[in-house]
């Protein structure tokens, strides 16, 4: 396993992904599910 991790880290490119749009989407989805739960009660 350590050989695999070493190989991945040393031989592959590392990408940095901006997850900010997904955080905003998660907040909106959470608000929608909370509203649905309140309506269902």
- SS field, number of helical segments: 2
Strand content: under 5%
- Unreliable stretches (pLDDT < 50, length at least 5) are none
The structure class reads mainly alpha
Straight-line distance between termini = 49 Å
Q: Report the biggest beta sheet as strand number plus sense, adding barrel if it closes.
A: none
Radius of gyration: 19 Å
Mean pLDDT: 88
Count of extended strands? 0
Please trace the helix and strand order, writing H or E for each element: HH
- The portion of residues assigned to helices is over 70%
Shape: elongated
Describe the protein's architecture and organization.
By secondary structure, the protein is an all-alpha fold. The chain has a domain at 15-40. Helices cover 76% and strands 0% of the residues. The protein is elongated and about 55 Å long. The termini are far apart. The mean pLDDT is 88.
Key structural traits:
mainly alpha; Bacterial mobilisation domain-containing protein
């Amino acid at each position: 396993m350590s050989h695999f991790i070493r190989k991945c880290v040393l031989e592959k490119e590392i990408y940095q992904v901006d997850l900010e749009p997904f955080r905003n989407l998660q907040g909106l989805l959470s608000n929608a599910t909370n509203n649905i739960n309140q309506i269902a009660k």
